[in-house]
Design brief:
By secondary structure, this protein is α/β, with parallel strands linked by helices. The chain has seven helices and eleven strands. It has a single domain, classed as 3-Layer(aba) Sandwich (Rossmann fold). The structure holds NADP nicotinamide-adenine-dinucleotide phosphate. NADP nicotinamide-adenine-dinucleotide phosphate binds next to helix 1, helix 4 and strand 3.
Length: 240
C-alpha cells in the first residue's frame, strides 16, 4: 500500500510517519497544497493508494488574523487535493483530518457523527468547509478528532474549563491506520474513552508545571468549550 501524507512535519504527521512505515511525506516546500501544479505532480510522482491529508493552518488566532491564508490552505488546498485525485488517480483512498471543533460545544457534550456542526471561529469554519469539499470525492473518509502530542505542553497554562475526549497524536495515528485498513467512508470520530479538561490532558501528557487558566481569563477568538465526541460508527480508544 503506497501512502502519501501531507503535513508530515506537524504534530500528527510525526506520529503518522511512525505508524505508516515507508509512507512518503514530502515537505511543505516539496508539496505546497495551495499550488495545483505541485499537488498534481505529487499525485503523479507518488501514485498513492492512500492519501492522508493532515496539512493545515491550525492556529486559532492565526486563522482569525489571516482569514485569507486560512481559507487558501484549509479550504482551497483541500479542493486542490480533491481536484488532483479526481483527475489523475480516483482509485486513491483519501483521509481528511477534521476536528471536534466543528461543533459549537455549548450546553452539550459527546457530539455524534450526525450532530449539526456550528463552528465558533474561523479555523473551525475552514475545517468544516474542507469537509464539504471532501464530500465531492466518494472514496474518502472525514476523521474528526482531538489530540495533543505527548511530552511538554505547548503553552505555560492549560484550560481547566474546556473539555474533550482527547487522545495523544500516537493514538490517533494508530486509529487512522485501522480506519484505512477497513477503508471506511464518510465521517468517523476517533475519540478517547474519557472526557477530561485540557489541564488534565496537559498533566497526562507528561508536563508537570502547567498552570491553570479559565475562559474568564481568556481574551481571544471564540472557542469551543466542550469538544467531547462519541463514536457511533467506530470504536473508542484508551488514551495512552
Ligand atoms: N492539533 C489538534 O488538536 C487537532 C485536532 C483535530 C484535528 N486536527 C487536524 O489535524 C491535522 C494536523 O494537525 P497538527 O496539529 O499536526 O498541525 P501542525 O502541527 O500545525 O502541522 C501542520 C502541517 O501542515 C503543513 N502545511 C501548512 N501549510 C501547508 C501548505 N500550504 N502545503 C503543505 N503543507 C502545509 C505544515 O508544514 P510547515 O510547518 O512546514 O508549514 C505542517 O507540517 C490538521 O488538519 C488539523 O486541522 C488537529
Amino acid at each position: 500500500m503506497k501512502v502519501l501524507i501531507t503535513g508530515g512535519s506537524g504534530a500528527l504527521g510525526k506520529s503518522l510517519k511512525a505508524v505508516f512505515k515507508g509512507a512518503s511525506c514530502p515537505t511543505h516546500n516539496e508539496l505546497d497544497i495551495t499550488n495545483q501544479k505541485s499537488v498534481n505532480n505529487a499525485i503523479l510522482d507518488y501514485k498513492p493508494d492512500v492519501l492522508i491529508h493532515a496539512a493545515a493552518l491550525v492556529g486559532i488566532r492565526e486563522c482569525e488574523e489571516d482569514k485569507k491564508k486560512a481559507w487558501l490552505v484549509n479550504v482551497e488546498g483541500t479542493q486542490k487535493i480533491v481536484n488532483a485525485l479526481k483527475k489523475i488517480n480516483n482509485n486513491c483512498y483519501l483521509v481528511y483530518m477534521s476536528t471536534a471543533c466543528v461543533f459549537a460545544g455549548e450546553n452539550k457534550k459527546f457530539y455524534t457523527e450526525d450532530d449539526l456542526p456550528a463552528p465558533k471561529n474561523y479555523y473551525s469554519l475552514t475545517k468544516l468547509c474542507g469537509e464539504i469539499v471532501v464530500r465531492q470525492y466518494e472514496n474518502a473518509c472525514i476523521i474528526r478528532t482531538n489530540f495533543a502530542p505527548k511530552g511538554q505542553w505547548k503553552y505555560p497554562k492549560a484550560f481547566t474549563d474546556r473539555f474533550g475526549t482527547y487522545l495523544f497524536a500516537d493514538n490517533v495515528a494508530k486509529g487512522i491506520l485501522e480506519v484505512c485498513q477497513k477503508k471506511k467512508r464518510g465521517i468517523i470520530h476517533i475519540v478517547g474513552d474519557k472526557r477530561m479538561s485540557m489541564h488534565e490532558l496537559a498533566l497526562l501528557s507528561g508536563s508537570k508545571n502547567v498552570g491553570n487558566i479559565t475562559l474568564d481569563d481568556y481574551n481571544g477568538p471564540p472557542l469551543t468549550v466542550d469538544m467531547s465526541l462519541s463514536a457511533k460508527r467506530w470504536r473508542k480508544y484508551k488514551i495512552e
